[in-house]
Design a protein that fits this description.
- This protein has about 140 residues and is mainly β.
- It is built from one helix and eleven strands.
Amino acid sequence: MGEIEKSPTRSGEAYCVFERAGRLLGLPVSTVREVLHGEVPTTVPLAPAHVAGVISLRGEPLSLVQIDRWIGTPGRRCRASDQIIVIETSGVRIGVVVDRVLGVEDNGSIEEVTELTEPLVYRRALTDRGAVMILDSASLVHA
């Protein structure tokens, strides 16, 4: 497989900010398609640990991904209270399981993360909510 191109992100771009395991994280709004509520996935036998399962989105299968292992938190089963952020990049669409979506932030100053402790985090946004770790959508889709 070739090198994955990072999602384009610019200072001042808006981010969908969410919580997972008590951490503030974000995804570029340019890659977010919608947010789903109350979906419980069907498990997929022999799927990698980060695949939470599959749901039907308007008759099409949508793989759900749990980011827990990439952000250093213990994984857990999906709950009906979880939310799913549907993202799309390079023509590939997945759902990211999150605890709750907090909103959109676009007023933060952006700084590059120099010491990557989480493989999918590539930026940090300083916002009114605090430091938000920005995930790279392209890397997440191809993980």
